[in-house]
Amino acid sequence: MRYWGIVLGLAVIASAVAVPCLASPFVVFPKAGELVSPDGRFVVRSMGREGAATEFVGTFNTLWLTETATGQSRKLCDYLGVAAVAFASNDFIIVTQYSKRTSQSFVFSAERAADPVVLDKSGLTRLVAVEMRDSLRQNDHVFVEASRVVGDTLFLSVWGYGQHDANGFRWSCEYALKEDTASCHANSPSH
To answer: Do 92 and 108 form a contact (C-beta atoms < 8 A)?
Structure first.
């Protein structure tokens, strides 16, 4: 009996560890070499910008999406600093670009070259409840980080600090991709 209890316990632990591995993890570019979609059809790579000796280069990097079967590539975006990238499914790529004082999130379609959904400090200001807007407008450090896409909903973590919120603020937000609406709520402070 004890043997089967141990085997069952190990099976539960193994499945708990394996489940997160089934989702596409975030990788951080430019450090990461590449990120392959769950079905292997696409790969995201970061490339440094090349230019003439007289041009100012080396500051920006570019994320490229390549279809592995055809080798066709398209530019997703330029970024300064680092970018956290994940496949939300085989259909969506989510990117959060970070700089010293802010971050912004994008949702790209893997299948079509359409304009991405962009959520940043100014874009989110028009979507949140009126009483939350000053936290976005009056703080100089505001970070909008994508965490996952489920169906047509993008889940975000929004946090920051500055003149308006000296001790900081932290929200959990859901953005409806089709409706272009967001709902956010303040997270309870941790003690």
So the answer is: yes
Q: Which of 187, 110, 115 is nearest to 155 (CA)?
A: 187
Which of 17, 153, 34, 155 has the alpha carbon at shortest distance from 85? 34
**69-104 burial code (b ≥16 CB/10 A, e <16):** eeeeeeebbebeebbbbbbbbeebbbbbbbeeebbb
pLDDT tens per residue, range 4-59: 333 223 222 232 333 333 346 899 999 998 999 999 999 999 998 665 556 655 56
Q: Is the pTM of this model over 0.70?
A: yes
Q: Which residues pair with 170 in a beta bridge?
A: 159
The C-alpha atoms of residue 110 and residue 67 are separated, in whole angstroms, by 9
